[in-house]
Amino acid sequence: MRIGLYSITYLGLWYRGEPLTLEQLIRRAHEYGFEGLEIDGKRPHGNPLDFTAARCHELRNLAAREGVPIYSVAANNDFSSPIPEQREAQIVYVRELIRLASGTGAKLVRVFAAWPGITRQNGVGRYDISRSVWQTAHEKFSDEETWHWCRQSLAECARYADDQGVTLALQNHPPVMNTYADMLRMIREVGSPALKACLDAPLVAQYEKTPMADAVRDTGSLQVLSHFGGEYDLAADGSVRSFVRKAGGLEPEAYYAEFVRALMATGYDGYIGYELCHTLPVVNGETVGIDFADRNARLAAQYMKGVIADARRHAKSETAAHL
């Protein structure tokens, strides 16, 4: 199991300040101890309109030299629109991201079934406006209709992915994929070897009451990608502490240890990538800057390395106990 960095962390969307270029991001990932990079599929990082074959080759070589290969490209797609022209445009977008992934050496494209999107206000991202627009657009349509549109679009994109030797990783992210069981049902119904799972622990913890180990076990060998998030600080003894930001403030995170142990039990050997993609604190009237992202990315890498090391020790002790 390896730790990666998802480029949305440095997109200049959640903190106050400019984004990193992909060249800067690759070097930052190497400096902080990440083992790979997932490129977010929008400007300024990974919009396929900006990627010629030469640009793909250039980034692939730089990432390889720095020891942080590009392992995934993340689509911000919405296959749920009631408007056929919009769904068709989204299919073209994902097809082009598959091309980008193939050109940079990435084997995965993370996809949503539905994604309302993000808007900016005063330079900082927010979710609420786009979510209200999405809800309004779907008021006159049934869940079954929306599901059908998503399944149809995912099936078409899976064919494009299969042709390029790329795998789509469907994330357990609302809307439409409201539970991990929805994700697994969609994968079964599409029925393509090029569509697999991106099960993320924070989404299980936030939207479900299912034990984390059960979600991982049920996903099993379909799991090809995962993410982790949150905020981090150093305890007095030098250990890294993990927190989840909620409306009432920070709460200690309490599920990654179980999640990683369960992943290890299934034999998962892919990436778990760090993402900082939520509303950040406002200090003295201003949203925190890129130094906040730097600190959290560096500590997140340390934290997850520790969680993985603990899971390996636990697995060895479990094996020894059964001998």
What does this structure look like?
The protein has helices at residues 22-32, 53-66, 84-104, 128-137, 143-164, 180-190, 201-207, 212-219, 256-266, 290-321; strands at residues 2-6, 37-40, 70-74, 108-111, 119-121, 124-126, 167-171, 195-198, 223-228, 231-234, 240-246, 249-252, 271-274, 282-283, 286-287. With 323 residues, the chain is an alpha/beta fold. The strands form four sheets. Strands 1-2-3-4-7-8-9-13 form an eight-stranded parallel barrel, surrounded by six helices. Strands 10-11-12 form a three-stranded antiparallel sheet. A hairpin with a 5-residue loop joins strand 10 and strand 11 (240-246). Helix 8 packs parallel to helix 9 (256-266). The model has no long low-confidence stretch (mean pLDDT 97).
Question: Summary?
Answer:
This protein has 323 residues and is α/β, with parallel strands linked by helices. It is built from ten helices and 15 strands.
Largest sheet: 8 strands, parallel, barrel
Tally of separate domains: 1
Whole-number mean pLDDT: 97
> What is the fold named in CATH at topology level?
TIM Barrel
Q: Please list the strands of the largest sheet in the order they lie side by side.
A: 1-2-3-4-7-8-9-13
The CATH architecture classification is Alpha-Beta Barrel
Termini separation: 25 Å
Helix and strand string, N-terminal first?
A: EHEHEHEEEHHEHEHHEEEEHEEEH
Descriptive key words:
single chain, 323 residues, alpha/beta, TIM Barrel, 8-stranded parallel beta barrel, 3-stranded antiparallel sheet, 10 helices, 15 strands, 19% strand
